[in-house]
Amino acid sequence: MKKALVSIAVLTILLASSTFAQELPNPGILPDHPLYPVKTFLEKVRLWLTFDPEARARFHAFLAEQRLAELNTTLAQGKYQYALRLREEYERELNESENETEKAFGLGRNATALLEHVCDMTYKHISVLERVLSKAPEAARPGLERAINASIHGHEKCLERVEEILNRTNDTLKRRSCTSDADCLNISVWCPQSFGRELRCFIPDNKTTGICMCLPKWNKTRINCTDDSECRGLVCPAILGNDTAICLNGRCVCGARWEIRNRTELRERFREEFGEEFTNRTENITERIRERVEAEIKIRRKS
What we know:
This protein is 59% helix and 8% strand. It is mainly α and 303 residues long. The strands form 2 sheets. Strands 1-3-2 form a 3-stranded antiparallel beta sheet. Strand 4 (244-248) and strand 5 (251-255) form a beta hairpin. Helix 1 (2-15) crosses helix 4 (53-76), helix 4 runs antiparallel to helix 5 and helix 9 (263-274) runs antiparallel to helix 10.
């Protein structure tokens, strides 16, 4: 028991760091406050009165951040008795947000703005929790790993949906011919700048006309490299988790910061905690994204 309390105390110091706090909203009333039941009751009332799945998904995402912020603050204040409940509620709100997002797309809604928001939020949570986990004592890691797992799962689902939409976007764009980038400006398709994309006219070699495509934005097209320092000019879309330009097999590619740092150590812990199925799923999605990025770099270089 004493050892556990010491571990929690160390974790408290880590969670109370200013960097962590800056990335979370103000939690407001905490679980030990007499009015906290009123706060949660009003949250439920708002959900009862919200019927649109897109609005419900966004509100569940907001509640997930609230629970994570409450967890951070209660631990910083030494109120350890609330940690387990808040972590479980955080995971539940993430799952509910995911379910409502799927409902919105199932109804044919253009919920791309919601998708960007969820991707951004879950990526931020992974980044924050991974930094804490890398310094946490062994006894405090299982709970943090479960929270990271929930965020990774939500981020994976978001990336899968992004991939589906972008594939449909480029299928639509293949029917639009162009001679310059200006010909692609007024097309009503989803090509989000926040995901590092922009509408461009891709003209093959020895051709005068091409087709509009939703391509990644790079500051540099050079892809040959010998070390990471030569890739600093590569602009990587942070929402996709690819916020770190690295040199991989002699080429500059975008990598995930939370995955690159302590990559082997993290995956070993996830394998022990969640089994091969989780590890394989994560590796497959990460590899798919990396292959797509490398393919798009080749297209951009040819253009």
